[in-house]
Amino acid sequence: MVTVIVNLSRYLILILMLLYTLQCFSVFGKKNEEDKRNVMRKQIVSTLFMDFVAFLVMYLQTEDIWMGYGCAAVFGYIIGVQVLYRIFYPKASLLLVNNMCMLLSIGFIILARLDMDSARKQYLIAVAGTLISLVVPVIVRKVRSLKNLTWLYAVAGIGMLGVVLVLATVSRGAKLSIEIGGITFQLSEVVKITFVFFVAGILRKDTSFRNVAVATVVSAAHVLILVASKDLGSALVFFVAYLVMVYVATKKLRYAAAGLAGGCVASVGAYYLFSHVRQRVITWKDPFAVYNEVGGGYQVAQSLFAVGAGGWFGMGLFEGTPEKIPIAKKDFIFAAICEEMGGLFCICMLLVCMSCFLMIINISMRMNNRFYKLIALGLGAEYAFQVFLTVGGSVNFIPLTGITLPLVAYGGSSVIATILVFAIIQGLYILREDEGEQIEKQKHKKDKPKKPTKPRGGKYRKEDEEYGEKSLEEKIREQTEKSLNW
Cα–Cα distance between 341 and 18 in angstroms, integer? Predict the structure, then answer.
């Protein structure tokens, strides 16, 4: 009986995910606000129902009572986030809120499948990050001095990366995080935000060659520290965000071309300077040729086996062997999801990520203030490129970079930083809504005819004649002419 339920559940979960994904894009075609809200409510129901089915199946497979507690906790988180955003930020983008909840739900499900302890830690981190992020939109909306702290962002970012370079221990060939009081912090995730604020601040008014050169030097300092720490995946994310922001701010193709040329030269240099980069390129070319070598193709090969075994519909929760994939909770979580939940499910998940990116770009294009426009664009570019690097590495489309899938993969710093990014985008969305309302009010005020003023001292003001009101002298003259004609 359990086997039948597991086999049926994978199709039900897929149908719910398909419905949710279609609703992500159908909402853009809705003009009426109430129709949009109906779509959002359906998305919440789909997410909750999917969580219920997934945790029920895992409970039937393991008979672990923690699966029931996990389901209740995820329900509490989703409902709590929805209520809090509706109370504190009624103008917020509910699509972004729903997508954040859906991606976190997928992460909770697959982590509970792989390691319940990791799922519990991820859940507590997500709750803490969400509570912290609730103050972010109001800061973005109210604190106008954010654009004046350009060099503070630069100093803070370089300082945090320098701390990691000096104090961090080597993990998987790179210095990624520091440990304080038993808690691990990957500060590069926070610096991704301060870096975008720095570039936006320095380019918000002056896009001259001199100013672009200054921005390039400071950005290069960020990237070089990451390269010295051998955190090349994060360095690549910083570089792409910088390139996109500079091109959009200046609208000069030669800057983008020069940046791409520099990036190509840096990539070749990294290949010859770092042995682990050469190993990853060799593995990317043919992972099966170096399958049994230390640091070779075993990880990528197992990831490809998992993706192939899952097929379109997946094998079902606890029916596959994703635990055989090394670092499945972090770098290869996409492959684990493919194996047990299916390729179609993963395509839908990527489309949800794409809808987040499109929403961010839409917000960026509608912002009047260049500082806010560049912030949205930079954060959106970082988010989209992280998704690309993670998925590309898992399916061997590109060499591995060590970047995790935002909101889905295990990692406290990454989850908190991504939740904060979504909160910043929410603040920009609310700010854009405020601007739209202000423009509508001014337009309405301009188009509305003025009421005629009351007589003062027996006379109407001259302005009243423009709105069809006759002066007292004209009325007396008309009455006199009528009397004479009579």
Answer: 12
DSSP reduced 3-state for 313: coil
CA distance 93 to 83: 13
Tokens at residue 52, please? 């219920």
Tokens of 342: 């299916």
Beta carbons of 163 and 178 less than 8 angstroms apart: yes
- Residue at 320: amino acid letter: G
Q: Digits of tens for pLDDT over the chain (486 positions)? A: 677 887 888 899 999 999 999 999 988 888 888 888 999 999 999 999 999 999 999 999 988 899 999 999 999 999 999 999 999 999 899 999 999 999 999 999 999 999 999 999 999 999 999 999 999 999 998 888 888 999 999 999 999 999 888 887 776 667 777 877 767 778 889 999 999 999 999 999 888 999 999 999 999 999 999 988 888 889 999 999 999 999 999 999 999 899 999 989 988 888 888 888 888 888 898 888 888 765 678 889 999 999 999 999 999 898 888 888 888 898 899 999 999 999 999 999 999 999 999 999 999 988 888 999 999 999 999 999 999 999 999 999 998 888 889 999 998 889 999 999 999 999 999 988 876 666 666 776 666 665 555 555 545 444 444 444 455 556 556 655 555 444
**Hey, what amino acid is at 129?**
G
Helix intervals (H) in 179-322: 187-203, 209-228, 232-250, 253-273, 275-285, 298-310
Do 161 and 187 touch, CB atoms closer than 8 A? yes
Residue 161 tokens read as 């990366």
Give residue 453's identity as a one-letter amino acid code.
T
The pTM of the full predicted model, rounded to 2 decimals, is: 0.88
Q: Cβ of 351: how many Cβ atoms within 10 Å?
A: 17
Confirm if 291 and 301 have CB atoms less than 8 A apart. Answer: yes
Which residues, in sequence order, are bridge partners of residue 185? 178
Tokens of 395: 């399916």
Q: Which element (helix H / strand E) includes 184?
A: strand 183-185
Q: At what angle do helices 187-203 and 412-447 cross, to 10 degrees?
A: 30
Which tokens hold the place of 409? 């993969």
**Residue whose C-alpha is closest to residue 105's, from 76, 145, 133:** 76
Give, in order, the Cα–Cα distances in Å from 316 to each of 58, 260, 312, 338, 345. 10, 43, 11, 10, 12
Nearest-angstrom CA–CA distance, 465 and 475: 12
Q: Which two tokens stand for residue 6?
A: 């597991």
Q: Is the Cβ–Cβ distance between 93 and 376 less than 8 Å?
A: no
- 348: tokens are 């839908």
* SS3 readout for 324-388: HCCCCCCCCHHHHHHHHHCHHHHHHHHHHHHHHHHHHHHHHHHCCCHHHHHHHHHHHHHHHHHHH
Closest to 176 (Cα-Cα) out of 226, 135, 216: 226
Q: Are 76 and 133 in contact (CB under 8 A)?
A: no
Whether the CB-CB separation of 197 and 218 falls below 8 Å is answered with no
